[in-house]
Task: structure prediction
Amino acid sequence: MFWYPLDNAAKIYPATISNESPAVFRLSAILANPVKIKSFLKAVSKAQKRFPYFKVQLKKGFFWYYLEHKPFRFPVEADRAEFCRKFSNAELLMRILVRENQISVEFSHVLTDGVGAFEFLKTILVLYSLELGVQIPLDFEYLKPGDPIQEVEYQDSYLHYFKEEIPPMVKRSKSFHLPWPLKSLPRLRVKNFFVSVDEVKNLAADKAVSINDYLVSVYLYLLQEIYEECKIPKRSKKFKHIRIQVPINLRNIFPSKTMRNFSLFVMPEIDLRLGHYSFDEIIKTVYHQIRLESDEKLINKNISRNVGSEKKLYVKSMPLFLKSFILKMIYYSLGTKQYSGVITNLGRVDLPSEMAGLIDHFIFTPPPPNKMLKVCCGIIGFGDQLVLSFGNITKSTKLEEKFIQFFKEQGVQVSDEPVKKQ
Result:
């Protein structure tokens, strides 16, 4: 048995988790054929010993929450319940779900981020493919059951790459939030849209930016439209900054192999006090802001702010109930109040051709948004299918409709069903 403390990014979640905001996300692989359950269960069984750091429960100490290892098997369930439901204290912080031709994993953000979760799902899919007799190239990288478990896989990389004496980030002003009323319980509505990777890539290339830059720019542009069109209470309209929180994978900046959380956020913005922004102006500012904020030196400032605060003696000695109260306030004052939306792009999935034929597409469903944020978006690409998954807890679907309309005006076909492979 072993235990380990929560990583720096995870520490805020136990203080903010609720049934409506469970900090749980989902990754789904939609296969070309129905899941062969016996072969799938064999694949899961082979993966059991490879991920001991995922067989943990959240426990409460006097000063901090921590993760304690439990000798449980990975739970495999029929996918019948609602998306991204909260984990109970008696459960592991992950679950595997199966329905017809769909394999999904749900993880608490206390445990890992989208990159760590996808590495786990990739291993399960490779082992399942092998059970079906598919030959996987020997040089394809995944976490193999026979490989030794390295300590770096469950390392707190924030703490590892923390540097002393770096000035912290400056607090940002409050941002505009969508004014729409909330749905009645259960609030979460998830809607997926499918577009062509190549068509969106061509649009982005015409502007000399990445697909991620382009999609973030579209989000900002549409929020500006909503701000200008809606009858918004004065107390909401006085906040004239529109920001999008965009997670970035720090494993692309630092040589980390952690399977725990290791991402931070950049927040490209427009300031409406300066007037209306054209789409080209937004593209330009997003391109430069993302690159500036993802510079290693500025990332170090962010890590310094987050890790430095928890290392202070008075914070260490503060009892957990008081820490939780303060963290919840920080989550809203330094967190959600500063941005208008979230767009999480896991990028394009690359798999060996032998294995890719078994899979039609992937879906990334982000954690349900809180009552202030209201809408969020998760993105993942595979083959020529780019899937945008919106989580919405309001009575309005205007943001999603505006996305569809924007793409159609650019000549991109949008569907709420996957495009059938030729």
Q: What stands out?
A: The longest strand covers residues 241-249. The longest helix spans residues 211-229.
